[in-house]
Amino acid sequence: MSKRCLSEENPMRRINFAMIGHGFMGKAHSYALLATPFFFKTGFEPVRKVIVGRNAEKAKQAAESFGWEEYSTDWREVVRRPDIDAVAIVTPPNTHLLRKAFYHYSGRGPTDGQGGATFRRKAHAWF
């Protein structure tokens, strides 16, 4: 006898992701989000909601190729969206100032245990 593991009474919680960057690491992280439920039984379903890039045509192509629902060229607008639960920043190392800008504009902090409020204050000092 087989039983369903997920049912209407026990659905997976959807987590809407945005991703800033769409090069090689964008492709790798897109696959990781797709594969996460297979490897880890977290009870969460990562949703590839919106991918962000500076070039609209390249962002659109990445969204289509990597399975994202939407694309954008305005990361400030995306990080403020109430439907976005998590943001992956996968830009090249020389653009990591973007991380400080993200904390400033979104009002969200990092999940690395170092304290979002501290990072927001530092980011605010940069802008």
Radius of gyration: 16 Å
Q: What's the main sheet like? A: 4 strands, parallel
Mean pLDDT across every amino acid position: 79
Instruction: Describe the global form.
Output: globular
> Residue ranges: pLDDT <50 for 5 or more in a row?
1-5, 111-127
Series of secondary-structure elements, N-terminal to C-terminal: EHEHEHEHH
| CATH architecture annotation of the largest domain | 3-Layer(aba) Sandwich
Q: Residue share in helices? A: 40-55%
Strands of the widest sheet, in order across it, are 3-2-1-4
In total, the number of strands is 4
Q: How many distinct folded domains?
A: 2
Q: Number of DSSP helices? A: 5
Please explain how this structure is put together:
- The chain has about 130 residues and is α/β, with parallel strands linked by helices.
- The chain has two domains: about 15-95, NAD(P)-binding Rossmann-like Domain (Rossmann fold, 3-Layer(aba) Sandwich), CATH 3.40.50.720; about 95-125, no CATH class.
- It is about 45% helix and about 20% strand.
- The chain has helices at about 25-40, 55-65, 75-80, 95-105, 115-125, and strands at about 15-20, 45-50, 70, 85-90.
- α4 packs across α5 (about 115-125).
- The longest helix is centred in the N-terminal third of the chain and has 16 residues, at about 25-40.
- The chain is globular and about 35 Å long.
- Residues about 1-5 and about 110-125 have low confidence and may be disordered.
